[in-house]
């Protein structure tokens, strides 16, 4: 995978040499202004439904292994 | 293939509305056809099991549809082609699927795809590659390979897919069908599993341009659940344009014609002549930055993917592995075992491109190239109505041909990536057949037409006129030709 990644980066590096001084970066293509929606209550998933796909739901929460090795 | 299944989705819809076609009988015939899938195109089919209730249709009057397995569907397995989501049944339904159900289109099943839509051959699926119905030793294209193969292979009348850098258009081209990537923002992305959020767009894969218009009309529209969705003013009408008089088609001067296979080039040139005989004008345009599209795309898309895919950590949904160790060990084991090689490659590329010290050189620079490419198209569209290219530089390649060389796989997206970066709509229509390099039976060639943002109606009208002029009616072997 190291060789593959190097090959891809070499190709990508071609844009490194372009003179793009002063060009504005594009992060979003459609001209949109921030629009705030009305602050109204909206449906949300019941807790048990949201927890159902979790590998280890427990006592109404997502159970995870301890962050510290025992 | 029975006569019932030869109807286009539009013909079937009109017959159902007129009362000449029994919707239940029609859908049952398609379910039976889908059950004969030998292409590994479906990952899940609705066989009337418990899941069926969640996707029941109240008023069955639109042709049944196959859905790429990237659209979350309540209660129905949704994997995005990844091991990490094996067995996942989402608790909610994507807007695109909800709109299909509300319109009265029963879901036939979920289609196979490259893992998280990363790929151009469907060989990156964790559930095995899809076979091309024209030649089962070849790829159907990707990442919406399953959605293209079901339509071309007579396993669904139409389907939806997603396109981030060509993932609707290229498989449509490889399978000899129509594929439309709409303007970014035309269709809601809510519930569409995210790959690269600034590029991802849902769209139709169909047997005709009219079907694409009908399906696009159902899907498009602003959605309060996706703040980047805009929709189209005035909706979508069925195309009925008969000629191309008064329209100008631009061929990029930078189009590296020698990088295109001879057979594809011949079909492309013949299609340009067809445009002229329909009254259109073919001129040269310049897209000087388009050649850097692949480089910019393979920075931006992996960067966004590396961020989006951080959510698969074995905590809230999907697979968990290594749960006996500590938290970090669980994260590492889950992601190591859950993701395939291409997804790992892109996460690494993306995190590298976004890392401190490299951000400006890679991500910042790529975003500026993106600006240049969008400006190129704006310039071109001041002189022409459409920009046209071959959809892909080759016909469908062989399974395994490019799997050892990811860069050559990426370069297959050369003609489709610039439109994605510019956010503009583009359609691929089948333009003819060509022999692959190295010989073999003839395979479909796609012709790509791109238009300014939100000019889908004009694009569909022109594509329709050209489609009628070309008269492509070839079908994969075994599915019968015009007399089958």
Characterization of the model:
The complex is a heterodimer of chains A (70) and B (484). Chain A contains two helices and two strands, in the order ααββ. With 70 residues, chain A is mainly alpha-helical. Chain A has a two-stranded antiparallel ribbon. The radius of gyration of chain A is 24 Å and the shape is flat. The relative contact order of chain A is 0.06. Chain B folds into two domains: 3-247 and 392-470, Amidase signature (AS) domain (Amidase signature (AS) enzymes), CATH 3.90.1300; 290-371, no CATH class. Helix content of chain B is 35%, strand content 12%. Chain B is built from 15 helices and eleven strands. An eleven-stranded mixed beta sheet of chain B has the order 1-3-2-4-6-5-10-11-9-7-8, sandwiched between helices. At the A-B interface, helix 1 of A face helix 9, helix 10, helix 11, helix 12 and helix 13 of B.
Question: Nutshell version of this structure?
Answer:
The complex is a heterodimer of chains A (70) and B (484). With 70 residues, chain A is mostly helical. Chain A is 23% helix and 6% strand.
């Amino acid at each position: 995978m190291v060789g593959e990644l190097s090959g891809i980066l070499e190709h990508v590096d071609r844009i490194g040499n372009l003179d793009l001084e002063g060009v504005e970066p594009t992060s979003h293509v459609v001209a949109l202004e921030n629009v705030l929606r009305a602050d109204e209550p909206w449906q949300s998933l019941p807790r048990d439904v949201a927890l159902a796909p979790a590998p280890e739901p427990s006592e109404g929460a997502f159970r995870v292994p301890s962050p510290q090795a025992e | 293939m029975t006569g019932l299944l030869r109807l286009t989705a539009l013909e079937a819809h009109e017959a159902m509305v007129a009362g000449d076609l029994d919707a239940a009988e029609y859908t049952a015939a398609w379910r039976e056809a889908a059950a004969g899938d030998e292409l590994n195109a479906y990952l899940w089919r609705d066989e009337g099991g418990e899941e069926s209730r969640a996707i029941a249709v109240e008023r069955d009057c639109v042709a049944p549809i196959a859905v790429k397995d990237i659209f979350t569907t309540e209660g129905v397995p949704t994997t995005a082609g990844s091991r990490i989501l094996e067995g996942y049944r989402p608790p909610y339904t994507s807007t695109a699927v909800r709109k299909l159900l509300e319109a009265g289109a029963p879901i036939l099943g979920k289609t196979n795809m490259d893992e998280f839509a990363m790929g151009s051959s469907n060989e990156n699926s964790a559930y095995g590659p899809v076979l091309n119905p024209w030649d089962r030793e070849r790829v159907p294209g990707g990442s919406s390979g399953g959605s293209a193969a079901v339509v071309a292979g007579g396993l669904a009348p139409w389907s939806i897919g997603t396109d981030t850098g060509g993932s609707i258009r290229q498989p449509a081209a490889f399978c000899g069908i129509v594929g439309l990537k709409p303007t970014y923002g035309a269709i809601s992305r809510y519930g569409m599993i995210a790959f690269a959020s600034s590029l991802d767009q849902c769209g139709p894969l169909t047997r005709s341009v009219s079907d694409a218009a009908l399906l696009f009309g159902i899907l498009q529209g602003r959605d309060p659940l996706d703040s980047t969705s805009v929709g189209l003013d005035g909706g979508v009408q069925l195309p009925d344009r008969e000629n191309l008089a008064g329209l100008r088609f631009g061929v990029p001067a930078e189009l590296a014609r020698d990088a295109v296979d001879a057979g594809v080039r011949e079909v492309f040139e013949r299609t340009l002549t067809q445009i002229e005989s329909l009254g259109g004008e073919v001129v040269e345009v310049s897209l000087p930055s388009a050649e850097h599209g692949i480089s910019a795309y393979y920075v931006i898309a992996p960067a966004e993917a590396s961020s989006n895919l951080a959510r698969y950590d074995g905590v809230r949904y999907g697979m968990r592995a290594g749960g006996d160790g500590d938290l970090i060990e669980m994260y590492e084991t889950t992601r190591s075992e859950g993701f395939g090689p291409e997804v790992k490659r892109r996460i690494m590329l993306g995190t590298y491109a976004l890392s401190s010290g490299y951000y400006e050189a890679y991500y910042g620079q790529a975003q500026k190239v993106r600006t240049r490419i969008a400006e190129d198209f704006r310039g071109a569209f001041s002189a022409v109505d459409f920009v046209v290219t071959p959809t892909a530089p080759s016909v469908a390649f062989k399974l395994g041909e490019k799997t050892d060389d990811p860069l050559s796989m990426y370069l297959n997206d050369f003609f489709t990536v610039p439109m994605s970066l510019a956010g503009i709509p583009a359609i691929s229509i089948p333009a003819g057949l060509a022999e692959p390099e190295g010989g073999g039976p003839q395979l479909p060639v796609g012709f790509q037409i791109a238009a300014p943002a939100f000019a889908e109606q004009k694009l569909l009208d022109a594509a329709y006129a050209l489609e009628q002029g070309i008269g492509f009616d070839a079908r994969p072997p075994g599915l019968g030709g015009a007399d089958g």
